Amino acid sequence: MGCVVLKTCRYCVHVIVVDNGSSDATTQIAAFASVSVLPLDENLGKSCALNTGIQHLRDLQPDAIVLLDADGQHSPKELSQVVTPVILDKADIVIGSRDLEHNGDTPRHRVVGHWAFNTFTRWASSAFRGWWCF
């Protein structure tokens, strides 16, 4: 977790860590890195953690928001690739994928599921653009 925080700080103006009841040194590492920490007393689930962070960010009115898990599956080095289409007003949302090359390690049922979900997301985001306000 600390590695992700420290790497992300190199590429972002403002980093917020939602500590979702972790039992590691998340809060201490984030504080050491001068990162804002939103602590939750217990693990309330991913959706609650995301909601907590996004609600906090609304007050800051950022140009873009990037969500990263602490597991390191997404590289902070690639943040500019994700943010650029939003900043240039070419996209409202960008969803990263860690399996674009289809290296053959993913079970077939998951490949089909990912394809179906991605297709639905593309359709929904273009068909209902501007309808969803949260």
Descriptive tags:
7% strand, mainly alpha, disordered C terminus, 5 helices, 134 residues
Commentary on this structure:
By secondary structure, this protein is mostly helical. It has a domain at 2-78. It contains five helices and two strands. A two-stranded parallel ribbon has the order 1-2. Strand 1, helix 2 (26-32) and strand 2 (36-40) form a beta-alpha-beta unit. The longest helix is centred in the last third of the chain and has 20 residues, at 108-127. The model is unreliable at 130-134 (pLDDT under 50).
What's the gyration radius in Å?
16 Å
Tally of separate helices: 5
Task: Please provide the ordered H/E string of secondary-structure elements.
Answer: HEHEHHH
Strand order of the largest sheet: 1-2
Instruction: State which percent range the strand residues make up.
Output: 5-15%
Q: State the helical fraction.
A: 40-55%
Largest sheet: 2 strands, parallel
Give the mean pLDDT: 81
Low-confidence stretches: 130-134
Please provide the count of β strands: 2
By secondary-structure content and strand pairing, the structural class works out as mainly alpha
Shape: globular
